[in-house]
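Handout, page 2. Input:
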Amino acid sequence: MEKQQELEWAEAQKIIISEDLLVKAKQQLLFLAEVDRNRCLYGGSVLERATFRYKYCWLPLLAKHVETPMTQEPLVVPLDCEWIWHCHRLNPVCFTASAPKSQC
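Output:
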């Protein structure tokens, strides 16, 4: 097993990271602090509405923008949609049509 880990470590060292991970980590912490200041995003009707906006407003808008950019500037994600997007990336199974609510 030790040899396998050494091989994996050596292979991982070849990965080129094009982002400044320290900067990205700080941005992530700022985002999570903002969500924490808006605790209504943790549950209830606000969370349900955010999920709706993410699925039926943000994702279609993003898809259209990718196809035909509406502006040269990047789109700015509303906080509620960004929160759901964040959660979706952490647990994509919850956003499949067949996922039972008990898994989420």
